[in-house]
Design brief:
Layout: E1 5-12, H1 15-26, E2 30-32, E3 39-42, E4 50-55, E5 63-69, H2 73-82, E6 86-94, E7 99-105, E8 111-117
Parallel strand pairs: 1-4, 5-8
Antiparallel strand pairs: 1-5, 2-3, 3-4, 6-7, 7-8
Length: 119
């Protein structure tokens, strides 16, 4: 498979409560991302993918999404728009993690993340 799901994200109004819920439900050990973000990260377990749980930006809805590895984030967004999708977040570099991420909505509004590892 050329493009695999490599990350998930659960974002909502109360990141600490969400992290508590999922860590207690599934015995997940989350580490804080640091900086001034309210974001906890889950390392990938054997056969699984890692993810993050945090507080969504002010004014954003709660969401759960998956991130797909791609070689060209901007090119994938352009192709998504040609196919009826829309760009929600343009390519954004994540400082300290050697990642570029973006978000798109498919034609029915489902949020999908794109991820390119730059390091």
């Amino acid at each position: 498979m050329a493009h695999v799901v490599s990350w998930f994200e659960i974002m909502g109004k109360d990141g600490p409560a969400l992290r508590s819920f999922y860590s207690r439900l599934f015995d997940w050990e989350l580490s804080e991302a640091g900086g001034d973000t309210d974001y906890g990260m889950l390392a990938a377990g054997e056969g699984g993918i890692g993810g993050g749980i945090g507080t969504a930006p002010e004014g954003s809805p709660s969401y759960l999404t998956v991130y797909v590895d791609v070689d060209d984030v901007a090119g994938c967004l352009a192709r998504a728009e040609q196919l009826g999708g829309t760009t929600v977040q343009p390519p954004t570099e994540v400082p300290g993690y050697d990642l570029t991420v973006a978000l798109l909505a498919d034609p029915e509004g489902h949020l999908i993340g794109l991820l390119k590892r730059t390091g």
